[in-house]
Design brief:
mainly alpha; Rhomboid-like fold; disordered N terminus; 12 helices; transmembrane helix; hydrolase; 2 strands; serine-type endopeptidase activity
């Protein structure tokens, strides 16, 4: 093993196989940090791919305390580290997806100021337009623009996204991050349309990410407490702007997506089974929202 690889493995803030991804989960056998993609459910806890390979092929399973660690176990992240990371502390890796979403959100808001809110009219989740299926994904990118209090609410959503989403993308990985954002957006938008309201803004995907992260760190009491506190603070700001169905839908979408993806292997499911379940739930809610709003008259 090279010196560079050993240096990465001693950093408790990143996955030992993917140094650009944050994680709090440790392999129960060797003590190395593993990201969601590298986590494999074992008879006792989560293990890394190398430990699973070493104990497979007829090798008898031994408890973790009987196995000589491959690397020195790392101390769990202190609460201050968790808080600083979620507040925008620097970390390795890029966050292209979250930054692109924020740029698109800001650009569409500015365009709305000078076009009488055309982006919100064509992309937002408006009652009676649920049959235009793209709105379930694009609604979070829009916000009714005006020279009034809407600027403050739009800016707060953007700031919270900027402070949290890039770090969550680095931890979850781009593919899982985009999956959580998409599912939370669809369910949140469907929830608003089913309640008879309009869906705008980053509330659904933002709280979907918070919920996904909470599932990831649930086994660490200190990290869990920090995420709950940060979520509660954001919840107070979000409720002042309304949109409770979008908020609840985002939480359900984010938590449900990560939970199903994590628990699938331990249940003996095929890799596509959690994806099919998630897609089925989203499709059902979209159909209900379309029926609730009425089909277009041809």
């Amino acid at each position: 093993m090279s010196d560079g690889t050993r240096a990465l493995e001693t950093d408790p803030s990143v996955c030992y196989r993917h140094p650009g991804r944050q994680s709090w989960v440790l392999c129960q056998r060797c003590g190395r940090t593993v990201c969601p993609e590298c986590q494999i459910q074992a008879p006792v806890g989560v293990h890394c791919p190398e430990c699973v390979a070493e104990t497979s092929g007829g090798v008898a399973w031994r408890p973790a305390h009987d196995v000589t660690p491959l690397a020195k176990p790392k101390r769990r992240r202190q609460p201050g580290r968790v808080r600083s990371m979620l507040a925008g502390a620097s970390s390795s890796g890029t966050a292209v997806a979250s930054q692109t979403i924020l740029v698109a959100y800001a650009a569409l808001f500015l365009v709305g100021l000078v076009t009488n809110n055309l982006p919100a009219q064509w992309l937002g989740g408006l009652p009676g337009t649920a049959w235009q299926l793209w709105r379930f994904v694009t609604a979070p990118l829009t916000y009714p623009a005006g020279l009034d209090i809407s600027i403050l609410f739009a800016a707060l959503s953007g700031v919270f996204w900027w402070l949290t989403a890039p770090q969550l993308e680095r931890m979850l990985g781009m593919r899982r991050f985009l999956g959580v954002v998409a599912v939370a957006s669809i369910i949140g938008t469907a929830g608003m349309l089913l309640s008879g309201g309009a869906a705008f803004g980053l509330t659904a995907p933002l709280f979907g990410l918070f919920a996904a992260l909470l599932v990831e760190v649930w086994g660490d009491p200190r990290a869990r407490t920090q995420i709950l506190v940060i979520t509660a603070i954001n919840l107070l700001f979000a409720l002042t702007g309304g949109g409770l169905p979008a908020l609840v839908g985002g939480i359900i979408g984010g938590a449900g997506t990560v939970y199903l993806l994590q628990s699938g292997p331990s249940r003996g499911w095929k890799p596509r089974t959690p994806v099919l379940i998630i897609a089925g739930v989203c499709a059902l809610l979209v159909v209900l929202a379309v029926l609730r709003g009425g089909l277009p008259v041809l």
